[in-house]
Amino acid sequence: MRRLLPETPDVTDLTSLTGLAEAYAYPEPTERPDPSGPVRPWLRANMVASLDGASRLDGLSDGLSSEGDKRIFGVLRALADVVLAGAQTVRAEGYRPARARAEFAQARAGRGQQPAAAIAVVTRSLDLDLDLPLFTEPLVPTLVITCAGAPADALRATRKVADVVIAGEERVDLAAAVAALAERGWTRLLTEGGPRLLGQLAADGLLDELCLTLAPLVASGDAPRITNGPAGLTQRMDLVSLLEEKGFLFARYARSVNSPT
Ligand SMILES: NC(=O)c1ccc[n+]([C@@H]2O[C@H](COP(=O)([O-])OP(=O)(O)OC[C@H]3O[C@@H](n4cnc5c(N)ncnc54)[C@H](OP(=O)(O)O)[C@@H]3O)[C@@H](O)[C@H]2O)c1
Question: Looking at residue 36, what is its pLDDT?
């Protein structure tokens, strides 16, 4: 993997996982907007798209991914306190709990993080298979973020296997959900989509950073793009870095400091 941007001489070893983790470190509180205020969460998204904007191939994102994309995926999880995922992604991709990895153990402990990121599933229906390892064997308890209008029976069953957060009435209020995560001291937030969840997070002005893998494929078809939802805020982003491996581009964009909203 090589760095295309920024063009400054780079001492980071991008061939090692720890080097990649350095390259993708969350901004320190002092580097975030309003450094004098309380530490606010930083929400990063990690997504992959084809050249023509498809967010999935044959119903899954795997066909768009690469070995380098998977490496970055793992590194971003290793840096995060919590991973926010839409329930359809959890169902379609068969989500498993994040695992603790020896390469990152010391750095996580040093930052006061749990051994692995918690997975937080956003759902109203609570239509989740509670017998899956995500609920039966997580290293860190899985969170389910739902709303007051969720079905009562399913809510009772979910509470037995997961930590439940109620945010909002008829649908999950995502700003309230992010605030609830911050109340737990989790400020390094990562979302892995899917497109409907990311579309709302972006429209609500909650997205601070987008890590976007551009796969060198023209997918054709009618797959949604990486945000799929209501129109909302149009967010200007700044390109922070651009890496390349085997024709795949790995871009990192952050909320523009000149026009933050
Ligand atoms: N290209 C990529 O990087 C990427 C990343 C992730 C996923 N994907 C692909 O994207 C597809 C899944 O994405 P998707 O956009 O269809 O769905 P999604 O965003 O993963 O999940 C949508 C579901 O999340 C829940 N949800 C979202 N916002 C909510 C809110 N405000 N309140 C309550 N519940 C809310 C609802 O769950 P309930 O229905 O349970 O109420 C909704 O049906 C899969 O094909 C996956 O492979 C691609």
Answer: 65
Could you tell me the distance, in angstroms and rounded to a whole number, from the CA of residue 9 to the centre of ligand 1? 39
* HEC profile of 74-96: HHHHHHCCEEEEEHHHHHHHCCC
194 lines ligand 1 (CB under 6 A): yes
- pLDDT for position 38: 63
Give mean pLDDT, residues 153-159.
98
β-bridge partners, 157: none
Domains of the chain: 39-255 (3.40.430.10)
pLDDT in tens, 46-75: 999 999 999 999 999 999 999 999 999 999
Token pair of 71, please?
């490496």
The alpha carbon of 157 and the centre of ligand 1 are apart by a number of angstroms equal to 21
Ligand 1 atom nearest 168 alpha carbon:
32
Pairing of strands 42-50, 248-255: unpaired
Distance 241 CA to ligand 1 centre (A): 27
Query: What is the Cα gyration radius of the chain?
Result: 18
User: What separation in angstroms does the CA of 150 have from each of 41, 153, 167?
Assistant: 26, 9, 11
Mutate to test the pocket of ligand 1, among 64, 72, 76, 124 (most ligand atoms within 8 A of CB): 124
Average pLDDT over residues 122-129: 98
Check if 124 has its Cβ closer than 6 Å to any atom of ligand 1. yes
